[in-house]
Design a protein that fits this description.
Blueprint: H1 2-14, H2 16-20, H3 50-55, E1 67-82, E2 92-100, E3 103-109, E4 114-133, E5 138-158, E6 163-184, E7 192-214, E8 219-226, E9 230-244, E10 247-258, E11 265-274, E12 278-287, E13 290-298, E14 304-311, E15 314-325, E16 329-338, E17 354-368, E18 372-390, E19 397-416
């Protein structure tokens, strides 16, 4: 039984390259929103309308009219490479085209002081699929679909004298589907096959409180605080099998608990804006350290098993600006960071296998009228760092070099009433 468990649980290491690509090490890979998304995500002091629901709900108070917004689709290409991500000498590569609905929402002015909003945001999605056959006779396939959706109401109050406060409440739904298979042929009966699959869903909830001051000269200062998330629901299934020669071991469990918690977060921003002319802004966001059991299960012998996810505190920066041509055509650009929160990809018992710092640039152009606006944009992301890979031995985990490149194209529109 001991040999069986060693082989089965070691198979988890063989899916590291694929599982790591779920983006579980960063809080910010790309930015969303019709206006703020093209300005590098600098929305704490400058966001208004639906964009403000996510960045700083106090900005809702600046919405002059009711509106419905849709960032229609985020079309993207995700490229990733891990040196030695399969076995020693075999690199793992992915080149995937993805389509991501990123933001839908609406704003309604209830009175001179009160404004309500609702938003559905998809701040993270990774899709990866590959089938590779090596000259050594090794066959490797994996598929990953990892998606998070934030949805909830927002409410803001403005004093009419430059001060405003707001609050947002979000339910966070995350779904993960991972399947990995590796097979090695052998002339002397020493071939092997490893397969693993995970299908998980979870639901969390959190709240965000924001405040903003808007000066008469165009200066703006904002701050927001986001609570740690509360776990509400999860459902997961897990299966793994190992075959060597004529022997096969397998484990399947539907009694698996998986969580996806968000940490405490504080963001501050400062900006300057002359409406329908130009604006610049910069934000800094601090996220607290957290450590929790990301998975819990009981094996076939009744023994408990768990995996931890430890994230260190991080500080990310967002900066951007806009300029209006003829008061009608906004041109926007920005820059942001997505620093890794993973302390050690090689720490035993940890589920985070990726440690990659990312950087992003954004650019967009649009056209605005009294009744509507439309904008197109591009978001380019790059980064490098480390992931878990495999060494010379079949069951040896090693730290490997990894790179990522992603590019997304957006189409956004809003209608005003």
């Amino acid at each position: 039984m001991a040999t069986r468990h060693v082989a089965v649980w070691t198979a988890a290491g063989m899916m590291a390259a694929a599982a790591a690509w779920g983006g579980d090490c960063r809080y910010q890979t790309y930015v969303t929103g019709e206006r703020i998304g093209a300005m590098g995500g600098a929305g704490v002091a400058l966001g208004r309308g639906v964009d403000a629901c996510r960045y700083n709900p106090a900005g809702l108070s600046e919405a002059e009219r009711a509106s419905v917004s849709l960032t229609a689709n985020l079309y993207g290409i995700q490229k990733r490479e891990t040196k030695g991500g399969l076995l020693a000498g075999d690199d793992a590569r992915s080149d995937e085209f993805v389509t991501i609905p990123s933001l839908v929402g609406g704003v309604n002015r209830l009175s001179d002081n009160w404004v309500a909003g609702f938003s559905i945001v998809e701040p993270e999605k990774t899709t990866t699929a590959e089938l590779t056959r090596k000259r050594s006779g090794r066959l490797y396939s994996y598929r990953l679909d990892d998606q998070s959706i934030w949805a909830g109401p927002s409410l803001a109050w403005g004093s009419g004298e430059g001060w405003s406060v707001g609050v947002s409440a979000f339910g966070i739904y995350r779904s993960q589907a991972i399947s990995v298979m590796m097979a090695q042929t052998g002339d002397n009966g020493d071939g092997f096959m490893i397969g693993e699959g995970v299908d998980a869903k979870s639901l969390e909830a959190l709240a965000e409180l924001g405040v903003r001051w808007r000066g008469a000269g165009g200066w703006r200062v904002g701050a927001s605080a986001q609570s740690a998330s509360v776990h509400l629901y999860d459902s997961a299934k897990y299966g793994v099998g190992v075959g060597t020669g004529d022997t096969i071991w397998s484990v399947f469990s539907k009694d698996v608990e998986m969580e996806n918690r968000q940490p405490w977060q504080v963001a501050v921003g400062v900006g300057f804006e002359k409406e329908k002319d130009w604006a610049v802004g910069v934000d800094a966001t601090w996220r607290a350290r957290q450590s929790f059991e990301s998975t819990r299960e009981t094996d076939e012998d009744g023994a408990p098993a768990s995996t931890w996810l430890t994230r260190r505190s991080t500080v990310d920066v967002n900066a951007g600006g806009e300029y209006y041509l003829f008061g009608t055509y906004p041109i926007r650009a920005g820059f942001y960071t997505g620093f890794s929160s993973v302390a050690d990809v090689m720490k035993a018992g940890e589920s985070a296998t990726e440690d990659i710092d990312a950087y992003g640039v954004t650019f967009g152009v649009g056209r605005e009228t009294e009744q509507s606006s439309v904008a197109i944009g591009v978001n380019y992301v790059w980064g490098k760092g480390h992931e878990q890979g495999s060494g010379e031995g079949m069951f040896e985990d090693v730290k490997t070099r990894a790179r990522m490149k992603e590019i997304y194209f957006t189409l956004a529109t809003s209608y005003y009433f």
